Amino acid sequence: MHKILKQSMVLSLAALLIVIPFAATAFAQVELEKKEPSAGAMTYDLFIMRPVGVAATIAGSAIFVLSLPFAAIGGTVPQTSEKLVVNPFKFTITRPLGYNRFNLD
Questions:
Q1: 36 conformational bin, left if phi > 0, alpha if psi -120 to 50, beta if neither
Q2: What's the pTM?
Q3: Is the model more confident about 62 or about 2?
């Protein structure tokens, strides 16, 4: 009986560890769609996150230039440019003010 109880507890814990992250993501998405950014969030975004985004875009561009020969040899230039240059640029320029989301899809 003890063995069955232990196995069912382990199975329940494993199921919870798999399900909880998906539920949290779903709740976060609903919250993001409904909530408008506050003035404080917009100010924080303008003075903190946007300069960090500019710095990340500049640093990513420099790293991309350095890694370009290796990416060309490996055939991964589009993926490398997407991750190092395009994503930081989108985060900095095209994202609405006050939304500090790193998901750029």
A1: beta
A2: 0.60
A3: 62
